[in-house]
Specification:
The chain is mainly α. The protein has helices spanning 5-11, 21-25, 27-41, 43-51, 60-76, 102-127, 131-134, 137-140, 163-184, 186-197, 203-221, 225-237, 244-247, 250-255; strands at residues 82-85, 88-91.
């Protein structure tokens, strides 16, 4: 999959130059970003998509190009204006342009990195519709949590969150999800992950998944846990046919365990 100068300036407008020299400057970074995309899709699927083996693969091409361009640009920004001289590194001098401040370069790099992360999530979202990818082990890496994209942090009151925010919060989310698996069972938890990865959630599964996320948020924040638990279990148990993994689990039995109650005619009395 070739990346052209037009692709680069389409997705990275600030990379525009009077000529196409920036493309040659970024060649090594584009190769690295393309390798990242190849690992994401898996070598065989990547080649098939790039070659257009099926008409439906065409929807992935612009998403791939956008991710590759932005990822390459984010990697290249720190060194685009640096040259190695016999006495060390120097900044390229230009009579018409003044070097940008370190703060402005840092801000640009963070902005481009966030755009690259958003492009990655858009690409993953589209890939969920292709069994060639969803059934592959490469996809599992991105679906180990019910909070798999930055958008999911809206449940935590962060509608403008980035993937960096998601990565930062992963340890806390993981600890809260451990409590969720104790409630609904590991099998049902993985069932939600699997259905999400294949983009095959039914309406009732989507509602239950929403309740799961709200329970995780309640556990993480330590607020409203009992209410969130009640609403989640009600959703599952009023639709057990849709959640057989939960219905057959020891967790379901535990949630319905009733301690022994003494009767008047018992020969022994238990405290």
């Amino acid at each position: 999959m070739d990346i052209t100068y037009d692709d680069l300036i389409l997705y990275c407008p600030s990379a525009r130059q009077p000529d196409e020299s920036v493309l040659s400057q970024m060649e090594s970074w584009i190769m690295r970003a393309r390798d990242n995309a190849r690992r994401l899709l898996g070598s065989v699927f990547f080649v098939d998509v790039a070659a257009g083996e099926k008409p439906e693969y065409s929807v992935l091409i612009p998403l791939l190009k956008r991710y590759i361009c932005l990822k390459a640009y984010s990697l290249a920004i720190p060194s685009l204006d640096l040259v190695l001289t016999p006495t060390g590194f120097g900044v390229v001098s230009n009579q018409n342009l003044a070097p940008a401040s370190a703060d402005r370069v840092r801000a640009l790099r963070e902005s481009v990195r966030d755009d690259a992360d958003a492009a990655l999530e858009d690409l993953i979202d589209a890939l969920r519709n292709f069994e060639e990818w969803a059934d592959n082990s490469h996809s599992w890496l991105f679906f180990q949590s019910l909070f798999w994209r930055a958008e999911d942090l809206r449940y935590l009151g962060k509608p403008e969150a980035t993937r960096r925010d998601l990565i930062e919060l992963r340890p806390e989310i993981a600890r809260a999800e451990d409590e969720l698996t104790k409630l609904i069972g590991r099998e049902q938890f993985c069932g939600f992950l699997d259905a999400t990865r294949h983009n095959k959630l039914t309406d009732i599964q989507s509602e239950a998944l929403r309740r799961c996320r709200l329970y995780v948020v309640a556990v993480k924040n330590g607020v409203g846990v009992l209410q969130a638990k009640k609403l989640l279990l009600n959703t599952l148990e009023e639709n057990l046919d849709a959640f057989p993994l939960y219905a057959m689990s020891t967790n379901f039995e535990a949630n319905h365990f009733e301690p022994y109650r003494n009767k008047k005619d018992d020969t022994c009395y238990f405290f």
